[in-house]
Each structure stands twice: as C-alpha cells, then as structure tokens.
Design a protein that fits this description.
By secondary structure, the protein is an alpha+beta fold. It contains 5 helices and 3 strands; from the N terminus they run E-E-H-H-H-E-H-H. The protein has helices spanning about 35-45, 55-60, 65-75, 95-100, 105; strands spanning about 15, 20-25, 80-85. Strand 1 and strand 2 (about 20-25) form a beta hairpin.
Length: about 110
C-alpha cells in the first residue's frame, strides 16, 4: 500500500489472506486495559483510548490527505478480521469496521 502521503512516517502494511489478518506498523494504534496506566492516560487525553485509530498527530502531519484517503480505500477492499499493530493490543474480531471508523475523518475528504 502506498502510504507516502503520510510523510514523515514510513509505514508498512501487510495482509495475510489465509488468517484474514492485517498487520501494520504505526498506521493505527489500539490502547486498552491491557496497556500500562500511563499509556492509558495518554490515550484518553488524545481521544484514542480503546479505539483502533491513527494517532492524532497523523491528522496534523499528513501532507497529502487525498493520497492517504485513496490508500485507506484500497486497504478497505481487503477482507480482514484481525488487526495486529506495532503499538497496542491486537484486535481479534471486527477489525475492518473498527479500522474504517478510526479513519473516518480521512474518508470524508473529497477527491
């Protein structure tokens, strides 16, 4: 997936078809009760607690929001259920609708 619109981040996204698993680096985060108290507090302050979503910082550093929207739309054509990310707790079920909800503000951008 082309994530170059999200510079300066260099993202990696993989899809394991057989297990229906999306594997990402920093594309999204999921901080919940399994995380440390300090991590939970920061996630709550940044409106990202117990949600699968990109960081609030991404909204401000993204240079080409249209390109990111296109990338997310392409990713959403994949049939994934689980999401494993570099930071936070794994999503075992309903990963795709949660991922879509987390990127809703990018998906609302006009092409």
């Amino acid at each position: 997936m082309d994530t170059s619109g999200c510079s300066p981040l260099n993202e990696c996204v993989l899809f394991h078809v057989k297990s229906r698993t999306l594997i990402v680096t920093d594309t999204v985060f999921h901080f919940d009760d399994q995380c440390s108290p300090s991590t939970r507090l920061i996630a709550k302050l940044l409106s990202g607690y117990n949600q699968l979503r990109p960081s609030l910082l991404e909204k401000f550093v993204t240079q080409d929001k249209v390109k990111v929207k296109w990338s997310i739309q392409q990713l959403l054509t994949w049939d994934f259920e689980r999401v494993i990310m570099a930071h936070g707790s794994m999503i075992e079920q309903n990963g795709k609708p949660q991922f879509k909800a987390g990127y809703e503000w990018f998906l609302e951008i006009s092409l």
